[in-house]
Amino acid sequence: MSNTERAIFDDLLPNRKMWYMASAYKALEKSNELFPNTFIPSNSHNGKGDALRHALWNAYFTGFCGATLAEQLTTAHEENIDPDNPFPQKEIDMDLYNNEKGRLIGETSNIFIVTQNVIDFLNIGGLRYLNNLNPNSPYYPTIYSILIPTDQ
Hints:
Elements: H1 3-10, H2 14-34, H3 48-65, H4 67-77, H5 88-108, H6 114-123, E1 128-130, E2 147-149
Antiparallel strand pairs: 1-2
Helix pairs in contact: 1-4, 2-3, 3-4, 3-5, 3-6, 4-5
Protein name: DUF6973 domain-containing protein
Domain DUF6973: 16-108
């Protein structure tokens, strides 16, 4: 967690803390199931799996605690900048885009179908991931990386 994210999190009621962490965990589990980290460039970092994870995380937490709190926490999360990443803003832009789409889906979806709604949105290209990544782990963006729709 970033310092800002931690400060917001620490002020939450215990049930909201639990929903935040559970939403992140459930999103990670589903993205790993659908996009195992066996492809290069990685699906789990800057690939389609990462796009799905961010959207699901935001959709789940929005369903439990609302879009405003979800936006505050997950935007603050993006302050965790890896000092080795040569183009961190590209990752941040990707994550913020997919976070926003997840919150929109979370606001309009029944909790029982929100997972499928996010997956469907990914499949029609509604989410974004980075192309032209560094071919070595941790698959950082390069100068040539741009956001592309998840149906490509």
